[in-house]
Write a structure and sequence with these properties.
The chain is of the alpha/beta class. The protein is built from 4 helices and 39 strands.
């Protein structure tokens, strides 16, 4: 399937600069471009590739100014990254068809209705009381527990485990190996040093359009619900503890851990390997750099970095100080020696 630069520009509301008949049939990274491919330039550190790329078409921002001749045809758009994402989604819808029907062997408990368009893969297990929406796709070896609700058009990839009573919203995507609704880490210490398990009687609720990465775990609440808001995107290998709440359209990168009962606001951007203490409140529109530690409440709009996390400007100053410590240490030793010599 081929598209010309002119056709693509009309689809995305862009402006062609070069040959409007330049045709492409695939995507490629700008540094790996080849004839017949479309690439994009969004990160300034890749700008030098645009002068050597072999891609036939490159999406660039309206503000891009070429400092050398560019061989490729350019399509200028407001946001190249968002535009290529839209194009990828369009191509996926045209070329990728999700399966339907029921494969054997699989288990569906008596009384569970299978709506139109549903797919149940081999060795999947659907427990009693489960409610499946239309066009739900449950891939092989997935487990759906008792009284689980899954909304329309949700995709449950291989090996996903959804424990009892959990609720999955419409158009959610759960990637391979993620676990929804395992027991929260709740234990009461006894005087003799043993721990009594605290029953975890709540559930997990995912709102619509949530995407959960591979091997991410979201624990059920002790009481009430662990809640993941509308449009939240969680990367692979994240731990969300019991009774946590994550606000709408927040994104969290891999290996982040959120301790119990912490509330994270909406539209936050959280880097990889961030650690949150329990029972704290993080406001809306907060940005947190990778490997930061969050021990206390965070105000809305904050930009944090470091361990423990501080404002990014303070973190940058601290980084300079740390970098200069060897030089400062040498200066102190020199002054000490000079003072000792003068005293003698």
């Amino acid at each position: 399937m081929q598209f010309t630069a002119g056709q693509i520009a009309s689809l995305v509301g862009g402006t062609v600069e070069g040959n409007p008949e330049a045709a492409v049939s695939t995507f490629a990274k700008i540094e790996e471009g080849h004839p017949g491919a479309i690439s994009f330039l969004a990160n300034p550190k890749y700008t030098h590739y645009i002068y050597s790329t072999e891609s036939s078409i490159v999406l660039v921002s309206n503000e891009f100014i070429a400092e050398e001749p560019v061989k490729a045809t350019l399509i200028r758009v407001a946001d190249p990254y968002a535009t290529v994402a839209m194009l990828l989604e369009m191509v996926q819808k045209m070329t990728v068809t999700l399966p339907e029907g029921r494969e054997e062997p699989s288990f569906v408990a008596e009384g569970v209705e299978i709506p139109a368009g549903t797919y149940i893969g081999a060795f999947a297990y659907i427990s009693r009381g489960a409610k499946l929406g239309k066009n739900v796709k449950i891939f092989p070896q997935a487990f759906v527990g008792e009284n689980v609700t899954i909304g329309d058009d949700a995709i449950i990839y291989p090996g996903v485990k959804i424990y009892r009573d959990c609720k999955i919203g419409q158009r959610c995507i759960l990637h391979a190996g993620c676990v929804i609704g395992a027991d929260g880490f709740g234990f009461a210490p006894r005087p003799d040093g043993h721990y009594d398990k605290i029953p975890q009687m709540g559930n997990v609720e995912l709102a619509d359009d949530v995407e959960i990465g591979a091997n991410t775990t979201i624990d059920r609440a002790t009481m009430g619900s662990t809640r993941i808001g509308h449009g939240v995107k969680l990367d692979n290998l994240i731990q969300i503890a019991h009774n946590v709440e994550v606000g709408a359209n927040t994104v969290i990168a891999s290996q982040t851990g959120v301790a119990g009962s912490t509330k994270i606001g909406s539209q936050c951007m959280i880097g990889g390997q961030v650690g949150f203490a329990g029972h704290i409140h993080v406001g809306d529109r907060v940005s947190i750099g990778a490997q930061s530690g969050i021990p206390k409440d965070v105000k809305s709009g904050s930009r944090l970095m470091g361990y423990p996390a501080v404002d990014v400007r303070e973190w940058a100053r601290q980084a300079v100080y740390v970098k200069n410590l060897p030089k400062l240490s040498d200066q102190v030793r020199t002054l000490e020696k000079k003072l000792k010599d003068e005293i003698k």
